[in-house]
Amino acid sequence: MSEGHPKRHHYVPQFYLRRFACPDDPNKVRILERHGDILATDRKSIDRIGYEESMHDFVAEGVAGSIEGPINRVIETPFSNSPTWQKITDGACARLDETDKIPIYGFARHLQRRNLETLRFIEAESSRFKAGALDADLSEEEREMHEWIAAAADNAHALFRDGAMDTTIPEDAAAINVMVCQSPIPLRTSTSPTLLILVPEQQAAFGAFFNNLRTWWLTLDRHCGAFIVAGGPPGFTNSAMPADAARMVNRQFLVQHGNSLTVRYMIADDAHLDGDLEWAGFSFDQLTTHGAR
Predict the structure, then answer these.
(1) What does the mean pLDDT of the chain come to?
(2) What's the order of all strands across the beta sheet hosting 224-230?
(3) Pairing state between β 189-190 and 265-267
(4) Which end of the chain, C or N, has fewer beta carbons within 10 A?
(5) Are 27 and 46 spatial neighbours (Cβ–Cβ below 8 Å)?
(6) Cα-flanking dihedrals φ and ψ of residue 279, to 5°?
(7) In the chain, which ranges are continuous DSSP H helix?
(8) From CA 214, how far away is CA 202, in angstroms rounded?
(9) pTM of the entire structure?
(10) Contact 146, 138 (CB under 8 A)
(11) 3-state secondary structure of 54
């Protein structure tokens, strides 16, 4: 650990956030920021969101280490230079095809597993286990995992690090259905970009096809995103998305923003935001220097 080791560890890659940069400033995004029950719209520097100080640092057997450098070297840089991401940065999401299915799924999975939300969830569930609040809901395998986490102070972070650095192709990759969608309206994202929007036995707002499936969404740029669907037939499609479906996805990010453990910023720059805030129960207070409260 050198003196030059960065303390600001981004759990949302800056190359991803740049896909949503303000038209007049490539280093800033328009955000919805949460302060308790107050929300404010503003412009924020990309390097000032989606990070936690020293998040990737650890001490093992008395030796300090960090996965900050390896994440950049092994995962971020290769994906940001990949043919899949090149299509996205070229504004050519319509050219995404079957060869991009596994990279998109892998990137969505990585963004979820390396996220601060995941680390805080592991810690919160471990605390619940120690308090006896999970006893009736655990399988034997889950119980063993929680017992291992509880055995040492660093084990929750060690589990998080293993997930963040995992580069293996998941066993279920061949069974995944990736549905790339071209949106006619601007799409939102957040500092927890891989959004779980449906779980089995939850009524699907997006149509009967999604009933009883586990479904995630990842926005890829302002007008393109992808559903990642598990539990149904495998496949890949790339097609236009109706505006009303895009609005439902955007509203799901607003729901996430209000209910998550860690998501302070939603990236949003669209004409429907004021109406969706009213839908969510918020009312206008005042204009600010760069937005509204």
Answers:
(1) 91
(2) 195-198, 214-221, 224-230, 177-182, 235-240
(3) antiparallel
(4) N
(5) yes
(6) -55, -35
(7) 14-17, 68-70, 77-80, 83-89, 101-113, 116-130, 140-150, 155-164, 243-259, 273-279
(8) 9
(9) 0.91
(10) yes
(11) coil
Mean predicted confidence (pLDDT) in 248-262: 93
Q: Give the mean model confidence (pLDDT) for residues 95-100.
A: 98
Residue 138: CB atoms within 10 A of its CB come to 14
Residue written as token pair 């995944």: 176
Instruction: State the Cα torsion 197-257-93-10 to the nearest 10°.
Output: -120
Q: Which of 254, 192, 183 shows the shortest CA–CA distance to 218?
A: 192
CA 24 to chain centroid, in Å, comes to: 25
By the 8 A CB rule, do 43 and 291 touch?
yes
Burial of 259 (0-12, 13-18, 19+ CB in 10 A): exposed
CB-based contacts of 86: which residues, under 8 Å, 6+ apart?
none
DSSP labels for 166-215? --SPPTTGGG-EEEEEE-SSPPPEESS-SEEEE-TTSPPTT-GGGTT-EE
